[in-house]
Amino acid sequence: MYLPILLACLITMMMWLPYLQLTVILSGDPKSDNRTTPAWARRLQQAHYNAVENLPLFIGVCLVAEFTQSSTPLMISAAMMYCIVRVAHYVFYALGIPFLRTIAFMIGWLSTLYIGAMTLINIT
């Protein structure tokens, strides 16, 4: 379970780079409220915020599964799926494709829920 946790953290860390670079190029100040920021850059920022909000939940269930030695190959696959769909969510968000973005989000959410539920079943 450590590899998916590490990948999810690295993916989330890298998500802020495109919109931060664009903001610096446009205004020189990443904290400025620049109204000329393109819609896709704002969407990338929103996708990054969404990833940051979901990361602690994912890490929590994965660590509990690992620490209780209750992870299974299927749970590890679900954790890797979470990483894949978080990238897909980011891309679909940037492209402004809400239906696919929502599907990707739901798969990631269900992956996290599956890991947590199976861990709960295995430790009780």
Walk me through what this model shows.
It is a single chain. By secondary structure, the chain is mostly helical. It has a single domain (2-29, 39-123), classed as Up-down Bundle (Four Helix Bundle (Hemerythrin (Met), subunit A)), CATH 1.20.120.550. The chain is built from 5 helices and no strands. The chain has helices at 2-14, 17-27, 39-67, 73-95, 98-123. α1 (2-14) packs antiparallel against α3 (39-67), α2 runs antiparallel to α3 and α3 (39-67) runs antiparallel to α4. The mean pLDDT is 92.
Strand proportion, as a percent range, falls in under 5%
Please give the CATH architecture.
Answer: Up-down Bundle
CATH class: Mainly Alpha
Mean pLDDT: 92
Could you provide a short overview of the structure?
The chain is an all-alpha fold and 124 residues long.
Task: Outline the fold blueprint.
Layout: H1 2-14, H2 17-27, H3 39-67, H4 73-95, H5 98-123
Helix pairs in contact: 1-3, 1-4, 2-3, 3-4, 3-5, 4-5
Summary keywords:
Four Helix Bundle (Hemerythrin (Met), subunit A), single chain, 124 residues, 5 helices
